[in-house]
Design a protein that fits this description.
This protein has helices at residues 21-32, 44-54, 68-82, 105-132, 154-174, 200-213, 225-236; strands spanning 12-16, 36-41, 58-62, 87-90, 136-143, 179-186, 246-249. α3 (68-82) runs parallel beside α4. It starts with 11 loop residues before the first strand and ends with a strand. By secondary structure, it is an alpha/beta fold. The chain has one domain (12-249): Rossmann fold (3-Layer(aba) Sandwich). A 7-stranded parallel sheet has the order 3-2-1-4-5-6-7, with helices on both faces.
Length: 252
């Protein structure tokens, strides 16, 4: 007889970049599946508004994942309020449409520190908490830009490629400890979050370049973020002895 699917009822999760877009959809799906969720993001007001929408099972924890001290403080708060940790979803990421030459020092640092160092800080904080619970689940959200690096998004794609390599290595390190690591490689989502910090001119220039180079064929029609969230719930609820190592979901 096959093992039953795992339940998320009563489990504790942390989702980064959870105030909007894909991150909020993931947090919402986890709450709907019975989990208690700590939502992490930098900006406090929209984060608290997002948690309020999800009700008593959601906790707003303002944090900057690029800052290791901020991560340690956030995880300590989540542990104190929720009592443990079973699931970590590393979703937070930033990007600007820049050539390598045109990226500022601050932009380079922000993309590397948020997209790569952020998940590293969070996994490092999560692992001992999961070990104390006898196991857990880590989901690292990557991007199909790893397979199709667009001009002006090479730095972003490189950070996601590094995250994928890190995910494979950490999975092997944790395999004997009942901590599963899933890499979600996502296509474009119907959310303004990714390009929210871009100016109208930056967006127009990027779209012009991508259209001229034929890159937009790789995007298709952006998916509702809820579809991506449901895929993560599916991976998290696979029975003991089964692991979704890499999950790719993209629009057609």
């Amino acid at each position: 007889m096959s093992e039953p699917a795992r339940s998320l009822e009563g489990r504790v999760a942390i989702v980064t970049g959870a105030s909007r877009g894909i991150g909020f959809a993931i947090a919402e799906a986890l709450v709907r599946s019975g989990a208690r969720v700590a939502l992490l993001a930098r900006h406090e007001a929209p984060l608290r508004a997002a948690a309020a929408k999800l009700g008593e099972s959601a906790l707003a924890v303002p944090a900057d994942v690029s800052d290791p001290d901020s991560v340690r403080s956030a995880f300590a708060s989540a542990l104190r309020e929720l009592g443990g940790l079973d699931v970590l979803v590393n979703n937070a990421a930033v990007a600007w449409p820049r050539t390598l030459e045109g990226a500022s020092d601050a932009e380079l640092a922000a993309m590397i520190d948020t997209n790569l160092m952020g998940p590293l800080h969070c996994m490092r904080a999560a692992i001992p908490l999961m070990r104390a619970r006898g196991g857990g689940e880590i989901v690292n959200v990557s991007s199909e830009s790893v397979r199709h690096p667009f001009p002006l998004l090479g730095i972003y794609a490189a950070t996601k490629a590094a995250l994928e390599t890190l995910s494979y290595a950490v999975k092997r390190e944790l395999n004997a400890e009942n901590i599963r690591v899933t890499l979600l490689r996502s296509g474009a989502a119907a959310t303004a979050g990714f390009a929210a910090a871009w100016s109208a001119d930056e967006l127009a220039e990027a779209m012009r370049l991508w259209q001229a180079g034929g890159y937009l064929q790789f995007i298709g029609t952006p998916m509702p973020p809820e579809v991506i969230a449901e895929s993560i719930v599916h991976a998290l609820t696979r029975p003991k002895g089964a692991s979704v190592d890499v999950l790719e979901i993209r629009s057609t």
